[in-house]
Specification:
Length: about 110
């Protein structure tokens, strides 16, 4: 499905898109014809609003954005590994590695 397309995902999984033939990009939302991908949890909201706009029009998408009061104003500018302090990036990498180690240990037990 992603073969030959640009696509995005959570930054820790971005390079895995190559396994599916995609060209990874760090954009929050990527539309490639009938395929749309989002980068992470909050960009999933962005993707949903894009889809609503395509299906029901911009006015409906804007009304939904207003109704859920989606007006991102994060208290920190650390929403991507390029912006986050190195210590924060390493903390996330370590936590994910530990989670994967534990999951692997459960599978082999």
């Amino acid at each position: 499905m992603l073969n030959g397309l640009r696509a995005t995902s959570h930054w820790l999984s971005l390079e895995r898109l190559r396994e599916y033939g995609a060209s990874p990009t760090g954009e929050r939302v990527v539309e490639q014809g009938r395929v749309i991908t989002a980068a992470g949890v909050s960009s999933g909201i962005d993707m949903a609003l894009v889809l609503v706009g395509r299906i029901a029009g911009d006015e409906v998408a804007q009304a939904i954005q207003l109704s859920i009061e989606y007006d991102p104003q994060p208290p920190y500018d650390a929403g991507s590994p390029e912006k986050a302090p190195v210590a924060a990036v390493e903390l996330v990498r370590a936590a994910v590695a530990e989670r994967e180690r534990r999951a692997s240990a459960r599978v082999t037990a």
